[in-house]
Specification:
Elements lengths: L6 H32 L3 H5 L13 H7 L2 H32 L7 H13 L4 H10 L17 H14 L2 H9 L4 H9 L4 H16 L3 H6 L8 H21 L2 H48 L3
Helix pairs in contact: 1-13, 3-13, 4-7, 4-10, 4-12, 7-13, 10-13, 12-13
Length: 300
Amino acid sequence: MKTRFSISDSIFNTINIVLTAILLVIMIYPLYFTIIASISNPHQVALGNVIFLPKEFTLEVYSNIFNNSQLWLGYRNTVLYTFFGVIWNLLLTIPCAYALTKRGLKGRGIIMGIFVFTMFFSGGMIPTYLLIKDLNLINNPLVMILPGGASVYYLIVTRTSLSSSIPDSILEAAKIDGAGEFRIFASIVLPLSKAIIAVMALFYGVGHWNSFFNALIYISDSRLFPLQLILRNILILNQELRIDITAAETEQIALALRRANMAEAMKYGIIFIASLPVLIAYPFVQKYFVKGVMIGSIKG
């Protein structure tokens, strides 16, 4: 049977479709522009001629990127920081969230209150730096992994999801059969929590992949720089090249201008390469992402 819509329903659906299409364009166009700018002539990009289609197709930008050993070193570092950082985050978040679902846990309210307190108050940058220094984590790759091992907000979402998606009857039945807490957690809780684990892995992974502030403060060894910090340095280099152009002699302007345009175009290429792993990973966890977010937000 065909569903009949009233005039008001049709108007409402049309407005929703138009607004959704506009939002889709707003979100997709920056990534699309990044792609077409990275495969266009850098001079055309600098002149603002690249808007909807690439101009003077070239792969010179990616050739320069692939030949830059520092970029690949940063890429490798970011992959390692993200992989081990996500594992560390999940090892802290999931067991802690499960423990906080236990109604019989003594001091659960106090513990949760302490966690929530840290969401609004912190020691500040200088005390944190002194702590990191005393722990011998300066210029140490572990500084990109260990600090901030668990996000309180993600902890609350995970706790809500576990308490809502796992029936108490299953846990009680396991206890009657003689299973201990570790056995219940490993054999029941984890298999039934794939959705929220995938969501947390995605959230933590994106955070680690885009992280550069800790490296900016605690790391001075270029061999340990993450990709995002190298991208930042390229942006700064681009600004310095433009300054040099204004102070250069006439015969040096052409060469300096080409370098500045190439640095600008390389920025788009690096942004695309840096975003590619996240774009590839998201479709594989999309169904878990939707399910986990809905469980953690509505049923909570």
